[in-house]
Design goal:
It holds the Pfam family Fe_hyd_lg_C. InterPro entries: 4Fe4S_Fe-S-bd, 4Fe4S_Fe_S_CS, Cytosolic_Fe-S_CAF, Fe_hydrogenase, Fe_hydrogenase_lsu_C, Mono_FeFe_hydrog. Keywords: Iron, Iron-sulfur, Metal-binding. This protein has 481 residues and is α/β, with parallel strands linked by helices. The chain is built from 21 helices and 15 strands. A four-stranded parallel sheet has the order 10-9-12-13, sandwiched between helices.
């Protein structure tokens, strides 16, 4: 997994902060044009061929952060016009992802390469074990015939000097469902009919070419209009900031939000309903049920593992129940879910109770733009305190455990956790689906699936190292009721 501390992520966050500051000052249309120039000044070291290419790529990145698809780029259109359209937009638009052609490195096809560490040893296990006989030793070094190589990797496995390495295409490798491939120009394209919006490509691309479309402009506009905008923060968000319990609520208030809802309260509702549903299903002879709170997983089943559809819980997600509570309290509330997940943006568009979905990066940028230091914020105690198990939804294994503790007979539960939906995880899902369709007994009767390895605390839009977030989540969970 690409470390979140990287240059592409820093550029993205800087653009978000600059946009937020301009908008809060009422100067977005006036000032957005200068962002590329300010971030790539005339005498700076270019990241690409020249400073002007850098500025063009930055211009496209700004466009995505304003919530536009860069595929709709018009060379004659000014950034101010895109900003104006964003400020007048009633709803975010699909798809959730956009690909920056100019930023895409057009990585060469995944292949194996012999490095200078090759010793041309007498044993020559790479050459001896190659099933296609495509390796020879000349000039004191092994060479791979790219035309004959089938990328089996046996040469790399056998080299005692680790002199053979694999050069991957990160976004293609990260996609568990084969939704990304190259076009005729070598650039990457997303097949949205296959995409689950897990965000893995966005997280892994070292050039930042895979981007989500922002909604920060929409939310700031509602805040500045004086609407009753409410923040609904996921448990994973509590793990992104070093703060005492209640200080995050104080930060949301300082940012202008009318009220805050912990989505962990919605997680309690989800866990209650899923525990009840599990008991009913088992009583009626079902052999398997899966959780349903991860929208990327649910979409993966719908598109790629249809045999498993009857096993997916009918229970809605914590985001849905939290938004439903908010709208019941006051239909005029503008509900904003805040989480580290790309797939939630898609789920939010399909849920009438959810108006907007902000990423951890976006809310972090808003705090920076408004100079809010969470550690200095007042402590605000919310009315309804969630349970520890509800708050623990944010990491792998948390949902299954929340269901287990609610069962009348927890000893009957046989959980299985798929911790990260990669290619192997997809095969596992299909195996469960096949077994369920054929009414064969499974090793597990409850399968929890988290698309991101480690759970939501390692989502594609986090701003804190998942290991640090895990430690901070533990403290947050311990404060649950």
């Amino acid at each position: 997994m690409l470390n979140i501390n990287n240059g592409a992520a820093q550029i993205k966050r800087e653009i978000l902060v600059r946009i937020a500051k301009l908008q809060l000052a009422g100067k977005l249309e006036e000032g957005v044009h200068y962002i590329p120039r300010e971030m790539a000044p005339r005498n700076s070291e270019p990241r690409r061929c020249c400073i002007y290419h850098d500025r063009e790529v930055l211009r496209l990145r700004v466009m995505a952060r304003l919530g536009h698809s860069v595929e709709d780029y018009d060379d004659e259109k000014k950034l101010a016009e895109y900003a104006k359209e964003a400020l007048e937009r009633e709803k975010p638009t699909e798809p959730m992802l956009t690909v920056l052609d100019d930023a895409c490195n057009a990585c060469v096809r995944a292949h194996y390469m012999v490095t200078n560490a090759c010793q041309a040893c007498i044993a020559r296990p790479c050459m001896m074990n190659c099933p296609k006989k495509c390796i020879d030793i000349t000039g004191g070094r092994a060479h791979i015939d790219p035309e004959a190589c089938v990328n089996c990797g046996i040469c790399m496995q056998n080299c005692p000097y680790h002199a053979i390495i694999r050069i991957p295409v990160p976004c293609e490798e990260a996609c568990p469902v084969g939704a990304i491939s190259k076009d005729e120009n070598g650039k990457e394209r997303i097949d949205y009919s296959k995409c689950t919006f897990c965000g893995a490509c966005m997280r892994e691309c070292p050039f930042g070419a895979m981007m989500d479309k922002g909604q920060i402009v929409d939310v700031i506009r509602k805040l500045m209009e004086g609407k009753k905008v409410v923040a609904m923060y996921a448990p994973a968000i509590a793990a992104q900031f070093r703060a005492q319990p209640g200080q995050l609520e104080g930060a949301f208030k300082a940012a202008g939000f009318h009220k805050t809802f912990e989505v962990a309260v919605g997680a309690d509702i989800t866990a209650d309903k899923e525990a009840h549903e599990f008991e009913e299903r088992m009583e009626h002879g079902d052999t398997l049920m899966t959780t349903s709170c991860c929208p990327a997983y649910v979409r993966a089943v719908q598109i790629h593992a249809p045999d498993l559809i009857p096993c997916v819980s009918d229970t809605r997600s914590p985001m849905h129940y939290t938004a439903e509570m908010a709208k019941k309290e006051d239909p005029e509330y503008v509900t904003v879910f805040i989480g580290p997940c790309l797939a939630k943006r898609k789920e939010g568009l399909d849920d009438s109770h959810v108006d907007y979905v902000l990423s951890a990066e976006e809310i972090g940028a808003l705090f920076v733009a408004k100079e809010i230091d969470i550690g200095e914020c007042e402590v605000i105690v919310c009315g309804q305190q969630p349970t520890a198990s509800g708050r623990n939804f944010a990491q792998s294994g948390g949902v299954a455990e929340a269901v287990r503790v609610r069962l009348k007979h927890p000893e009957n539960l046989r959980p299985f956790v798929i911790n990260g939906l990669d290619v192997a995880g997809m095969k596992q899902l299909k195996a469960f689906g096949k077994a369920a369709a054929e009414k064969k007994p499974c090793e597990a009767n409850l399968v929890e699936v988290m698309a991101c390895p480690g759970g939501c605390i390692a989502g594609p839009s986090v701003i804190t190292n998942p290991k640090v977030a895990s430690a901070q989540l533990k403290k947050y969970v311990e404060k649950g009721s």
